[in-house]
Design goal:
This protein has eight helices and eight strands. It is an alpha+beta fold and 250 residues long. The protein folds into two domains: 44 residues, no CATH class; 180 residues, BirA Bifunctional Protein, domain 2, CATH 3.30.930. A six-stranded mixed β-sheet has the order 1-4-5-8-7-6, with helices on both faces. A hairpin with a 2-residue loop joins β6 and β7. The radius of gyration is 21 Å and the shape is globular. 24% of the residues are buried.
């Protein structure tokens, strides 16, 4: 699909490999300015009726079919429980640096909503927590040599891929996320089983439902260039949990 688009764009503009030329020859600042001008022209040429049609057709902008009060209460409850376990709550930005998922976690950038000004819409809060921790460690504001650095957050996520096996599922959803960072001190205090993963399962009567997952990742190793860095992440789908709570009798 991408090769077909590039060929069509090259024919339309009469320029060989326009995408490659733009990405290689324009600075990030110039590319941002170009796209800002393009989007401004698109917005200026649109009518209120056009805006409404876009709202109705765009799966990214529709509200979630969830009890908003129940969801907010779940956010408070999970953050409170996490704080009791020494996970410091943090309110993340809706945006994160461009490539936050694709550079260290090897996710496809096309599954993320890329934005302007060197950013993307948050698609995985655990990546944002890793950046927050790595930045604090590098600046000397955090220290994980003797004690773990732990953060928790609840966040609205946006992902661009379509969920073909879940028709009607929106492209945005809320997750409760945790990240813990430590440092290998050479005494098996924080043994690192790379690739270790787990699934969080809710049991309702005779049924079980996966509501989250987690595991050990090497993201802070990559970000800080240190093989001694250790990080464990996990996340739970809050809307799925809210649906389970809502279905329980009494």
């Amino acid at each position: 699909m991408h090769n077909g688009f590039r060929s069509r764009l090259a024919r339309l503009l009469g320029v060989d490999d326009p995408v490659g030329r733009l990405s290689r020859r324009l600075s990030a600042s110039d590319l941002n300015s170009l796209l800002l001008d393009v989007f401004r022209e698109k917005a200026n040429s649109s009518s209120p009726a056009d805006l409404l049609r876009r709202y109705e057709a765009n799966r990214f902008v529709q509200p979630a079919a969830v009890d908003a009060i129940r969801l907010k209460q779940l956010e408070l409850d999970t953050l409170t429980v996490a704080r009791g376990l020494d996970y410091e709550p943090v309110q993340l930005s809706p945006l994160t640096p461009l490539g936050s998922c694709s550079i260290v976690a090897s996710s496809d950038q096309n599954k993320v909503v890329s934005a302007l000004r060197g950013t993307e819409v948050t698609a995985d809060a655990t990546n944002s927590l890793a950046l927050h921790i790595a930045g604090g460690l590098q600046a000397g504001m955090l220290d994980n040599r003797e004690h773990f650095v732990r953060y928790s957050t609840t966040h609205r996520h946006v992902r661009a891929q379509r969920f073909e096996q879940a028709p009607g599922m929106l492209a945005h959803f809320s997750l409760f996320a945790l990240a813990a960072s430590g440092r290998d001190r050479g005494s098996y205090d924080f043994v690192y089983y790379k690739g270790f993963q787990f699934t969080v399962i809710a049991r309702i009567g005779e049924s079980t439902l996966p509501i989250g997952d987690g595991g050990l990742v090497d993201w802070t190793q990559q970000l800080l260039g240190s093989r001694k860095e250790r990080m464990m992440i996990s996340a739970i789908g809050l809307e799925r949990l809210a649906a389970i709570e809502g279905s329980e009798p009494g």
